[in-house]
Amino acid sequence: MRLGLAANRRHHASADAALFRWLRASGAGLRELGIGLHAVGRTYDAIVRHRAFDGYPGLVRYPYGREGGLMKLVAEVVGLGEGRTLDGAVYLIDPVDPSSIFPEAVALKRQCVIQGKPFLSTVASARDWVESERIHAGFAPDAGADALHAFEAQTLALIAHDAMKPQMLEFADRHFELLSRFGARIATGTTGQRLNELAWRRGWPQDQPWAQRFQSGPLGGDAQIADRVLDGRCQRAVFFEDPHVARQHEADIQLLERAVTTVTDTVACLTSPAVAERWAQAAARRAAMP
88: part of which helix (H) or strand (E)? Predict the structure, then answer.
């Protein structure tokens, strides 16, 4: 398995930066799984400079961003044949870094979503993904990841654009027991209403909403959820985005995404049905382990 790897400057500028917090937390799991890290120039240089992954044969250097390194990651997420296909990308984003909205950065996320591959833009997301893959590979749970799976103390945001609402409902129906373990669930208007109707059909008390509804996305629901994220009142987001449709409230969607990356250590985000499905299967399996 191969992951593209990039981090904005702030996230690799010091030994305590986000990139190194993730590598310290997930390094053992990355080695267990034998995951290749295909790192863009400055990110690779920082890892070597801080001796964060000494002796790891799966660490591969790509050109600097200005020389096309991030563009190569995008092409390899799409797939260029044997040895040049990535299984996803870790891109630790500083939301105030202008490079985070360069075309190649936006395209990296978009192609991960289109291809159904993980796009991991926060420390929590990347940490959570490694643990999920460990569980799928048959390893025992890592106690260091227990906090990510303490769902009863977490709030889950469920967000789906219009074309993706049926898939969100199918996902919620398939994993209803798992999602019901969360301390609370929140959603934008129409998605929240349909999720509540699903829950009531499944026996959830009729006088209690399964998901707290905010405004619809175009009317500010994304901003309301972003506020929860920034205040530490939402710890996980399942975000089914339709990458093929131009949206009138694009700025609101970007605001929510920026909020998630602002609190990089505390919010895990799942960005497509395929990625969310794999996470849910691993989470259920982990909960059943002794």
Answer: none
The answer to whether 222 is a known catalytic residue is yes
Find the catalytic residue in 173, 222, 227, 242.
Answer: 222
Q: State residue 244 phi and psi, 5-degree precision.
A: -100, -5
Confidence at residue 285, expressed as pLDDT on a 0 to 100 scale: 97
Closest CA to 236 of 192, 171, 288, 182: 182
CA–CA distance, 20 with 10 (Å, rounded to integer) = 11
pLDDT per residue as tens digits for the range 50-85: 999 999 999 999 999 999 999 999 999 999 988 899
Helices (H), 54-208: 69-78, 103-115, 123-136, 165-174, 176-180, 189-201
Token representation of residue 251? 């700025």
60, 38 contact by CB (below 8 A): yes
Write the CATH number of the domain with boundaries 2-121.
Answer: 3.40.50.1380
What is the per-residue pLDDT across 17-41, written as a single tens digit (0 to 9) for each?
Answer: 999 999 999 999 999 999 999 999 9
Residues 6+ apart with CB under 8 A from 137: 32, 33
Domain range annotation of the chain: 2-121, 143-288
Instruction: State which amino acid sits at residue 19.
Output: L
CATH 3.40.50.1380 fits 143-288, yes or no: yes
CA dist., res. 95 & res. 72, Å (int): 22
Are 167 and 240 a contacting pair, CB within 8 Å?
yes
**Integer Cα distance of 36 and 76 in angstroms:** 13
Q: How many residues does the chain have?
A: 290
Tell me if 2-121 shares its fold with 143-288.
Answer: yes
- The SS3 call for residue 239 is strand
In the prediction, which pLDDT does 4 show?
98
On whether the CB atoms of residues 206 and 197 are closer than 8 A, the answer is no
The answer on pLDDT for 101 being more than 60 is yes
